[in-house]
Structures are given as C-alpha cells and as structure tokens.
Amino acid sequence: MAVELNARPLTFVAHALAIAGAIMVLVWNISYRGGLAWEATNKNLIFNLHPVLMLIGFIIMGGEAIISYKALPLKKPVKKLIHLILHAIALILGSWGISAAFKNHNEAGIANLYSLHSWIGIGVIVLYGLQWLYGFVVFFYPGGSSTLRSDSLPLHALVGLFVYILAVGNATLGFLEKLTFLESSGLDKYGSEAFLVNFTAIITVLFGAFVVLTAIAKPASSDDDNYSYSAI
Fold first, then answer.
1. What pLDDT digit, counting tens, does each position of 135-146 carry?
2. Which residue from 84, 63, 75 is spatially nearest to 10, judged by alpha carbons?
3. The whole model's pTM is what?
4. Residue 186 belongs to a domain with what CATH number?
5. What is the H or E stretch that residue 68 is in?
6. What rounded mean pLDDT belongs to the chain?
7. Could you tell me the residue range of the domain that residue 82 belongs to?
C-alpha cells in the first residue's frame, strides 16, 4: 500500500526548490565565479559548467523524471515516455558536466579522479546510464515480456531511487569540496559566497528529499499501472 502522502502538493514544493536551486547555482557561478565557458583562457570558467550542469542537468532533471511518473495525471504510455526522455536529458547533461570537470583539470594541469567526490561521481553516472539502458530495453523498446516487466519493476524502481539518493549525496559532497578549496585560497568563511554555496547544498538536499517523498506517495491519478516505489 502506498504511503499516505499526496504526490501533488509534494510535487509543487519540489518544483519550487528546483527553481531556487537552479537560480542559486547560476548566481554563484556567473556572479561570484566569473561566468561559464567551454573554451577560455581562464580555466575556472570551464569548471564552472560542472556544478551548473550537474545540479540543473543531472539532479534537477533526474528528480523531475522521477516525479513525472508519479505526479502527472496522464496515461501510463505518456508518463513512461516523459520519464524516459527526462532521464536521458539528465544523463546527457550530467555526462557533459563531468566532461567539463575533466577538461578543466586537463587544461589546468590538475590531477583527475583523486577525490571521493570524483570516485562516487563516476560510479553514479555509470549506474545511471546502466539503469536508463535497462529501462529502455525492458520497458520501452524492444520491451520485455509482461512477466519480465512486472518482475523487474520493483527492482528497477528501487535501484533508480538508490542511485538518485547517491547522486544527491555526492552533489553535496561536491559543494563541500569546492567551498573548502575556495576557503583554503582565502575566501571569507562567513562571506556571502560561502553562505550561498552552503544554502545551495541545503536546497539540493531538500529537493532530493521531496523527490523521494513524491516517489513513495500516493499517485496523482488512480492509474493501477502507476510506478509504485512504495510497493517495494
């Protein structure tokens, strides 16, 4: 039985948090960090793409993909397609965000893959990609048998939620890592930028929490084929 929470109001809060988080990470990287660029003499501008793409592209779009399957009062085939497309966008933008970090490190002469954040990040993007590919093949095209889809759905939902929670946790670890580097380089620990980064991380955690709550809540419609995380 589904947890006695209504998905729709939880979704509204999640959307509001998503907008707040997107604005905050853009303000941080454009107003405080100097802007965004794929090619630049100042290699920091290349790195600035990383937190923007990972939060807006990976965390927020990934969360919206999960929310869409539970909260939208649409027929199952439509929700399935929206769910699939949003996850694909999240995966593409997340991969681009990771590429920006590697590009920055390579061009600035910084070592790659030395931190816990980077290790977990690679693991998360690989698991996310495998999860999307499995969902595409089994639930979309060419599609498994009805028995395979029915048997796979609870595990697919559980693994997807686990990977998403891991992604949110690693995003906060990334904020901490970057802020620690900045403060070690002289950034005021009690300045406006430090507070902005910390509050952006808090908003990220809250958004992730409301995505999970939406996932385990009662669906917005009475469609018996709803993606039921709460049945796991």
1. 999 999 888 888
2. 63
3. 0.91
4. 1.20.120.1770
5. helix 61-71
6. 92
7. 3-231
What is the pLDDT at residue 229? 47
Q: Are 60 and 207 in contact (CB under 8 A)?
A: yes
Query: Is the distance from CB of 158 to CB of 229 less than 8 angstroms?
Result: yes
Q: Alpha-carbon distance 10 to 64, whole Å?
A: 12
Alpha carbons within 13 A on the beta-carbon side of 108: 18
The per-residue pLDDT for range 171-215, each reduced to its tens digit, is 999 999 999 999 999 999 999 999 999 999 999 999 999 999 999
The structure tokens 């595409």 sit at 136
Asked if the peptide bond before residue 142 counts as cis, ω within 30 degrees of 0, the response is: yes
* Phi and psi angles of residue 51, each rounded to the nearest 5 degrees, phi first: -65, -35
DSSP codes of every residue in 7-49: HHHHHHHHHHHHHHHHHHHHHIIIIIT----SS-SSTHHHHTH
112-130 in b/e form (b: 16+ CB < 10 A) is: eeeeebbebbeebbebbee
Q: How many residues does the chain have?
A: 232
| CA 20/CA 15 separation, integer angstroms | 9
29-63: pLDDT as tens digits: 999 999 999 999 999 999 999 999 999 999 999 99
pLDDT at 13: 96
